[in-house]
């Protein structure tokens, strides 16, 4: 499901490059409704960057495809004569809740949301490296149970593919590493059919691609210093 909508993730380039994020498991309290679980992280999603990039302090992206699975849907509730606790609680469907959440955390970004009821199964041979604070279904407890007869059998997961400024750091870092290679020591590489001019052209295309993901938050000093070497 993560691949749904990826064609819109790189509007600035004919090539599509995305960064992967995941929360494994998604930290939701046992018995917590979906809007309550999302409201607990209204400033920043509790996921970690899986791609080999340095995480940015500024939370932003151009476009993203996000999947949440395994979190129970909220039962239909009403608040007669009162406002819902949050805009998320007023949404009619789980997809609308996640979409509303993404718009609030990433304003202006193109976001697609997918919510699946089925969790990720973690039965053997899946490694049991989970915290004792998790139930067998992967939800958080206030305190460790006295006894748990079985391991964690399934977990809720929040995952995303993002077209974001963090890709500028990844792609430009790759460009600098390749540019620093001494091609004279790669005789066997070029003898295999790779032309030196083609290599240099691909290198410049990589640099150009990295600029597609650059925003005003990136510092140019390190790049300017590297280019002047």
From TrEMBL:
One of its GO terms (cellular component) is mitochondrion. InterPro entries: DML1/Misato. It comes from the Eukaryota. Coiled coil: none annotated. GO terms for biological process: mitochondrion organization. This is MSTO1 protein. It comes from Aegotheles bennettii. The gene is Msto1_0.
